[in-house]
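Ticket opened by: R.M.
Priority: normal
Category: complex prediction / small molecule

The reporter submitted a protein together with 6-O-phosphono-beta-D-glucopyranose and asked that the result be attached to this ticket for the collaborator who will pick it up next week. Submitted input follows.
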Amino acid sequence: MAGDTGRSGSVYGGVAEPCTVVLFGASGDLAKRKVIPAMYDLATHNALGSRYAIVGFARTPMSEESFRTTLGEAAKTISEVGPIDPKQWDNFASNLFYCQGDYANQEAYAQLAKRLAELESSKNLGGNRLFYLSTPPEVYPDIVEQLGRAGLNRPASPRSWMRMIIEKPFGRDLASAKDLNQIVLNVLDERQVYRIDHYLAKDTVQNLLVLRFGNGIFEPLWNRNYVDHVQITASETLGVERRGGFYETAGALRDMIQSHVLQLTSLVAVEPPASFDATAVRNEKLKVLQSIRPFNLEMVAQSVVRGQYAPGKFGDKPALGYREEPGVNPASKTETFVSGKLLIDNWRWAGVPFYIRTGKRLAKRSTEIMIQFRRAPHIVFRERDIEPNRLVLNIQPDEGISVSFGAKRPGTEMSIGNVTMNFSYREGFGEATRSAYATLVNDCLRGDATLFDRGDTVEAAWSLVDPILDVWSAARSATVPQYPAGSWGPRESDLLLERDGRRWYNP
Ligand code: BG6
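Result attached by the on-call engineer:
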């Protein structure tokens, strides 16, 4: 299917006001792989304008020159925004600066404040400041408190703004998320806080709202009268790679379900917001999370499955099992796979199960939402076994939408076959490399929080996940089912649907 490729203006919609971005954790992996390439992409699309500075702050001692070189080398090899143009990079890098310091050291923040004032004056940046927390989450409280102590939580002048982006994970359970919210809101106003869930900035995720609320044909069907069930899959082929140490403290439930998968769920289920602004959209999403039936012991046993990838083969190469990965306890019970059944107790979705699953080392990398519709109420054809209609939203990697339905096979017999109508983003709108991180930073610089998490929604998501974590940690002697690399998870996950007379729709 073809699309209208015409775009108005820059892909990033407007030029940011002059500003300084302070990147905490600037020597870390996320900064190198995602944040700096995203900033470079914004700069080269003229979304940052000509007056900006990016100040890296981290513990690692490093000169400004080697900071620039290290980031340049990293961007060349791991940039997700496409090839780096050396000339454009040099231009961008001349706006990169570095401050070394310990996150808990008050003196380091006094130095930082001094540096910011100097840069703002020499580069005529005005006083707009964005503080980006891309450090390990343990140091978030130190950074926030120290910024407050140094007076950096307040805008530099009456006409400027101060905002803060906080990376996920935001807490590791409900209590710690509440504590962190409290610490942050002691020094900042909620309107200054931008909590990241990068899935929300993927074009195809945003398109969910356009599909539902920008078209007349889908919404009338989008409810319990027509939808049989929904499946949401976020599968990865990679294992935990070099993040074994971190992953041991997280697991798939915390790492993917609490954030990305519940975000996707709330966008599929959300009621039409009164307008497309941050408050209206986020209010509606919060209601969805609050309507999901809370898990109790029995529901966890019946409706939640966990698993761990076993040693095996991936393609023709041997693959390590999770417990053999570097940094992982050989007797670990941390789950690398979760599937579950959610029930949303509201008028629209009563009785419609939402089956969700995520995992590492699965058969295919794919994030997909499948809406399965109820069968026709009465089939008049001799052939009764017609596949149900499905609407599949492919979030990544083959971004697109497909609808399947029954059609008459050519020939004299009345025989019915299942056909699929496909829309592919690439074919419809052409290739567009745009990182979710660039979208998010750009939105934050323009003061638009629609695609960020609010404190109450993060807490609502933790409230759902907490009872599952509690049941699992109480069941110390329980074994975690193993699944072979390259499969769709443990057998228990199939049974979850088979018990309801359904099966997983594998991408
Ligand atoms: C991150 C998780 O939030 O999302 C990772 O911490 C996961 O474990 C990643 O691999 C997946 O993101 P994407 O954009 O590659 O689907």
